[in-house]
UniProtKB/TrEMBL annotation:
<dbReference type="InterPro" id="IPR041827">
    <property type="entry name" value="CpdB_N"/>
</dbReference>
<dbReference type="Pfam" id="PF00149">
    <property type="entry name" value="Metallophos"/>
</dbReference>
<feature type="domain" description="Calcineurin-like phosphoesterase">
    <location>
        <begin position="55"/>
        <end position="300"/>
    </location>
</feature>
<dbReference type="InterPro" id="IPR008334">
    <property type="entry name" value="5'-Nucleotdase_C"/>
</dbReference>
<dbReference type="InterPro" id="IPR006179">
    <property type="entry name" value="5_nucleotidase/apyrase"/>
</dbReference>
<keyword id="KW-0378">Hydrolase</keyword>
<comment type="similarity">
    <text>Belongs to the 5'-nucleotidase family.</text>
</comment>
<dbReference type="InterPro" id="IPR029052">
    <property type="entry name" value="Metallo-depent_PP-like"/>
</dbReference>
<feature type="signal peptide">
    <location>
        <begin position="1"/>
        <end position="37"/>
    </location>
</feature>
<keyword id="KW-0479">Metal-binding</keyword>
<keyword id="KW-0511">Multifunctional enzyme</keyword>
<dbReference type="Pfam" id="PF02872">
    <property type="entry name" value="5_nucleotid_C"/>
</dbReference>
<dbReference type="InterPro" id="IPR004843">
    <property type="entry name" value="Calcineurin-like_PHP"/>
</dbReference>
<dbReference type="InterPro" id="IPR006146">
    <property type="entry name" value="5'-Nucleotdase_CS"/>
</dbReference>
<dbReference type="InterPro" id="IPR036907">
    <property type="entry name" value="5'-Nucleotdase_C_sf"/>
</dbReference>
<feature type="domain" description="5'-Nucleotidase C-terminal">
    <location>
        <begin position="387"/>
        <end position="571"/>
    </location>
</feature>
<keyword id="KW-0732">Signal</keyword>
Amino acid sequence: MHSRPTTGSGRLPGRGRTATRLGVALAGAAVALPALAGPAGADVRGRGVPEFTLTVMGTSDLHGNVLNWDYFADAEYADSSGDHVGLAKVSTLVNQVREDRGAHRTMLVDAGDTIQGTPLAYYHAVVDPITESGETHPMAAAMNALDYDASALGNHEFNYGLDVLDVFEEQADFPLLGANVLDAGTGEPAYRPYTIETVRPDRGRAIRVGFLGLTTPGSAIWDRAHVEGHLEFDGIVERARTYVPEMRAAGADIVIALSHSGIDPSSSYGDALPFPENASGMLAEQVPGIDAILAGHSHQEVPERFVTNEETGQEVLITQPKQWGQRLSVMDIDLRMERGRWTVTGLGSHVLDSATVPEDPAIVDLVAEQHEAARAYVNSTVGHNARAMSAATSRYEDSAAVDLINQVQAETVAGALAGTEHADLPVLAAAAPFNRDAVIPEGEVTVRDVASLYGFDNTLLGIVLTGSQLRDFLEKSAEYYQSVDGPGPHAADDVTNAPTATAPYGTPDYLYDIVGGLDAALTYDLDLGQPVGQRVVDLAYDGVAVADDQEFVLALNNYRQSGGGNFPHVTEAPVVYDELAEIRQLLIDWVAEREVVDSDEFHSVDWRLVFGGQELLIED
């Protein structure tokens, strides 16, 4: 499809690999797709003046999704939005675009976070790792089959250690790019900074397309255990200022940044590093010479956005596809030959929806055996449970099931904060009673049993709250309960799921958070005889009343921290932990590491529903 790429800087071709390209393009299923926006492309528009439209397709944050499959439900993936996932779906879209535009007018790239996120990916990194099995990682196999031209490194590429990443890089028939990832010993690039591909139109000289790979520098914190002493992470903007001019000098007619970094400036690690986590917008504004950016990391869908470069006034195109292969970004770049060089004359982008097409059977067949191995894993025994834990009553009484979630969340954040300025703060955790039907049985426990406690794809964060803010948080949570006129007995449905102005038909369980601490240190009562906003009583830590100015770290999920449920203070609170770790996988790993789970080790009754100090009697 294209000639071999030129390696950026001519220094390190990657961590011990020399890439080759297979040039494989699978024949997609013959399906009717939505009309493709943008021009179909042409090599000549007007007599004697070569013009060309290049279409660059992009994915990001695939997170190990090859098939449209939910391994925890052991069924095809389905969500309330009707989205589908996986590279098998993406492949059908890619094949259709190639057919529509002409294969020689198209390229395919990725913005990172590839090898982590599903049991399929986990299995080949941890259970039967590619470092030992000799198998090709299913993501490498699928991406090779789709004939990717390049991919940026994502922060989750480092989750399983550098050995797994090195093998994945060797297996990939496309370069992994990371211009701001440096060798800690030499200060030189540890991975290819950029690659330049050659596209040959029917008329005019070859077009040289440069892809610059950049990744969020937070990996220095999130994966410190794997990268410290080996890799260092520079700023996205800082490294781009070096390499974009170098790429132009090397003959790149087009420069596209593959930026594993969100568009709008923010940092979840505060001042721990001098560089922002999400800097793709800043990249467009501050570094001249970039034509377009494929962004990622923040799991947002941005079909098309233009940002003006502050120095040149050039409009830079940014697009970001929805994660897990739910969308495919399609960038159309119009070029015209002027004075012997190709010049960009127009830019546009849109996204295609994977839910509109069937899976490519070639990709399905390619990973069929690995898929079945992953299915067998999630249905396998992960540990043993000393006594059954049910979530049936967890919405109105302290239960071991929710305590398990909070124990894992709090332990994870506390461990990550060790040795930092926040290490001495008490760590609490908040979790909702997501699934009333969840049961971890006594005896053998499967991966799926553990996962039933947590049915959402949330990631874990840690924020700092004061005692008064913690009380406000609990008061908001207590809106979930209806008022009562005595200690009962009451039916559970007459106490829970209270209607509110924002939930007129009743507050759903996932908007009620139970807060706990390590070693049963936090205790409180919710008095349902009191008006909303005045229900939290006897709030104490280690038996001492919580002071308004006392500081805590609260572990909670990304939905809540980003404003889901409109809980007070959480969106503005300082973030001290955000490694994008999936809470469900943390639970599975916690059980597997201990082998035997005994709820007596972490469960106690630390909160109660009361009326005037008397515990409510509730009958389900």
